[in-house]
Amino acid sequence: MATAAALATDGVTDTRQRLIDVAVDLFTRHSFAGTSLQMIADELGFTKAAIYHHFRTREQLLDAVVEPILERLRVIIGEAEELRGVHARADHMLTGFAALAVENRVVAVLAADPAVSEMLRSRRVWDELIDRQMALLADVEGGPAGMVKAAVVLAGISGASGPNFAGIERADLHRYLVETGRRALGLRAPRSSRTTASEES
Amino acid sequence: MATAAALATDGVTDTRQRLIDVAVDLFTRHSFAGTSLQMIADELGFTKAAIYHHFRTREQLLDAVVEPILERLRVIIGEAEELRGVHARADHMLTGFAALAVENRVVAVLAADPAVSEMLRSRRVWDELIDRQMALLADVEGGPAGMVKAAVVLAGISGASGPNFAGIERADLHRYLVETGRRALGLRAPRSSRTTASEES
Questions:
Q1: How many CA atoms lie within 13 A of A20 on its CB side?
Q2: What is the three-class DSSP state of B84?
Q3: Residues in domain HTH tetR-type (chains A, B) (predicted)?
Q4: Of residues B122 and A129, which shows the higher confidence score?
């Protein structure tokens, strides 16, 4: 058993990261609501006191899991919004979101969890990001049809990049997701090197 | 407070259905893992004993929620498999699944919940249904690309028919979902009256 005192030395960052990694794993297997701090403690052989040293609540831990993903999302959205043309903007959003989902498979679980979205939606900054992300995709067609299409593509990419598809190579999975998203949204594959580069990242 | 004795009379079917309806509502808002039998009891002003009269565990209640949906899914899959041609089969599966998701918005929540899919996947009959459903859509393209496309379409339709889109008319939502699915899978809208009828149902 690691004690809070032992963790409070120079291993503090590593311990924090291990807690986050185990939380991602348990959220992916049992959903957010189905994962307790006690389960995370048990998985690591920690006491609950050792966890409290880093995270007081499960919600704080969720924040730590979600924050870097949101930060990347914010960058992708900002880049997309600066491009000229509805199609180029949608394409950048699509390829960026697919890369994010493939690299962070917990997105599949968290994006679809009503307990998680309720919590995140209650924060203005997250709510605004989701709206901007939706708008970038929905503007290709406009109206409610465009909104539904955007929702299908985002939910579909999240869902299909989940733990069930762990057997497919990341680069292949990303390419298939982007192809499917483009067809669903009615986008043509751009020939610019920018998009090719972001697909390979 | 209703007592178990009071419920055991001719109101027994109604009470069972009310329990299921409240469960659907709470699963939709808080996820399956985030909903306890106690919460369901509180919502209805029942004692927990009254609920035990109908469902011993939350899992039994989930079964009661899921069973009629699975039964409809089984019918749609069976109908699709009897059609001639990969495209006709995929199109019937697509339109049928979209109708199911639009009419049972809890599908959006349950389909994406790892706690739920773990439980359902452990039953052979459900696992086999999912595989047949995936195959009907994946066969349009074949290989891993076809599988990913099928997964995007199924997860996308589930996700986009969830509680967030409660404001769109069901018939419109169904039409947009089917259009998006057809484009994603590379299906042309068929001209036969069969599909038109099922889209309007």
A1: 17
A2: coil
A3: 13-73
A4: A129
